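Worked example 2:
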Amino acid sequence: MKNLLIVESPAKAKTINKYLGADYVVSASYGHVRDLPKGKIGVDTEKDFEPTYVIPSKAKRTISTLKKLAGKADVVYLATDLDREGEAIAWHVMEALGLKNQNAKCKRITFSEITKTAVTTAVKNPRKINMNLVDAQQGRRVIDRLVGYNLSPLLWKKIYKGLSAGRVQSVAVRLVVEREREIEKFKPEEFWSIEAIFSREKKEFNGRLIEAEGKKIEKLTIKNEKESEEILIKLENGKYEVIDLKEKEERRQPYAPFTTSTLQQDASSRLGFSAKQTMRLAQDLYEDGLITYMRTDSVSISGEAITGMRQFISKKFPQSLPETPRIYKSKSKGAQEAHEAIRPSDINNSPESISDPRSKKLYDLIWRRALASQMKEAVLDIVEARIKNKEFVFASRGQMVKLKGWIELYPEKISEMSLPKLEVKDVVDLEKLDKTQHFTEPPARYSEATLIKALEERGIGRPSTYAPTISTIQDRGYVIRDSGRLKPEKIGMIVNDMLVENFSEIVDYNFTAKIESELDEVASGNIKWQEVVREIYVPFKKELDEKGVKIAKMDMDEKLDEKCPECKKGLIIKQSKRGRFIGCSGFPDCRYTRSYVDEKTQAKIDEGEKAIEGRKCPNCSASLKIASGRFGPFIGCSAYPKCKYIEKITQNANVKTQNDNEKPTNS
């Protein structure tokens, strides 16, 4: 054997293996091979934050195998991902295998897409491991360990065991909590709008009142029905005349190709995918060689890829090919322009070639967005008319698509409405007047997509952290999904309030963004990672020592108007790391407990019980039962795990859907 090439995943290894000859063995590290130890902090704060790395037990066999392969190889290529985390994994693999960064035997290679050209080019152009990138990742890992391992035990002591805090996750929870409180405090205000239907030569069109008796009509100008009625009375008579007419073209430019965050946002809004699901599917597409690397904050595309897209557009959409290529530059601070946006590795790979339906949907989205980014702008013909009756002015707007351009491939909702042919001083007929009551609405709860956007806009987190952060705050029970939106649980609000009150800097948006910016400086080689760690840890530790003693323990128990069936003492709702449960106030003398079910969940269970009456499992004829999963109760087969049939509980017992990805946790 001459050469060993190491990647993270077996799927990636399998794809790359097709592109290299018999002189190469491609093997996987299965992700991280070294990490800080579990159960202890693993960072020496007295010795310049020196970390202690260990090989997790699950990685020991992998390292043993890789050592044997490396011992036989002339050259070891470390081909882990091209971001900071990938660079750190490459360094950890090198250290675990006893290789040296300066050694000719150990070479680092990267590629943004898994194609034959990209892989073979990378092998021909190896480099050393970039220790600046490794240090940026080390700095992040050490900061997160110091914050988490110091704050989490405090939460256990003051609230209850099993809670956790983190530098980015706690800021994400704060955003959700603060939005919820905005909603709670919101007081709706009444307002009215007045619309008209006009006609000219038998063609009807709409108008909206924008000016009344010299006063501009703003959103809240007409405050009640009485005011709107008074205006309507004045509008019933008189001549409606066109006083102004403007015709123009409106050009809508295509979107830039996807970054990690914009992919997660569009996959959520267009496909209904969670951030976690999107990244899992994108990882599979990348490892199969279908798309470029999916963790990126860059919108740039290689010249070769642009040429391929323009050739494709010239054949399929010749009328939408611009004269010159479109070049995109990232607006976000710290974006790595050397990386590419997310795009198909080969634009000629049709979405129809993918068999898995979810992967196909995501690839289709990426494929369309990338192609659309190189197409002509959409052109709309706009006509704006002002129609006056006495001292009242209405605005009418017509818009029609003149040139589809990029929206032919990446559809956007454009409401087309044409106005009749009008001239200034034309008199139009009034067909109808309408008054409509409205109320101002509170800000919407965050969805996963809008929370990711909010984090990105504040400079918090990086492409690799968005999906894990959103997943973590839900796994911890701080936040739940309610009708597709993120709602804070009571415990999330309690933990947030404690952190904001006592450790404000840790959950401060600007401070968290500043740390991200300084880690970017580490990656650029401008500062040392230890300086960034020291800046956050020293004041944090001082605050922890001072306030850890002062913070009072919270009583999380809620009294129930019910007696314990065993000892007749009062029952209480208690909180544990597994969630809420009902227990006896006489504990530990009395150990009576039962599950706690809120009203919403109980209603769903009752609905499920109705749905399974008289029915058997359609797969194996065993009894059906109500089971509990991560997303609440569902109908499952009593023969699980032998039979894995499940269905959602719906309001209509006859409507069922099967989801083999959700596994029962209570069988």
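The two ends are 50 Å apart (CA to CA). Confidence is low (pLDDT under 50) at residues 652-667.
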